[in-house]
Amino acid sequence: MAKNASSRERTREDIRTNPPLILNTLEAGYFLSLSPRKIQYLIKSRSLPSVKIDGSIRIRLQDINKFLESHVRKGVAI
Questions:
Q1: Fewer beta carbons within 10 angstroms: which end of the chain, N or C?
Q2: What pLDDT sits at residue 71?
Q3: Domain ranges across the chain
Q4: 38 and 29 Cβ atoms separated by less than 8 Å
Q5: Among 58, 70, 52, CA closest to 28
């Protein structure tokens, strides 16, 4: 794949293994294994921070990582 490939040309696996620093809702969905609609819901409910750049919603990779860390479930000793 070319280095300047558009987000539509990026595969799900590529997003997971080599994510960009700023993702759109589709890429964030690929990264988290969620639908773009679920990503939009998380943004609208303010669970997942986002930025608006020239009318386009973007999610910073660092915010996705913080979101994941805040949702880690602690194991219970048996």
A1: C
A2: 87
A3: 20-69
A4: yes
A5: 58
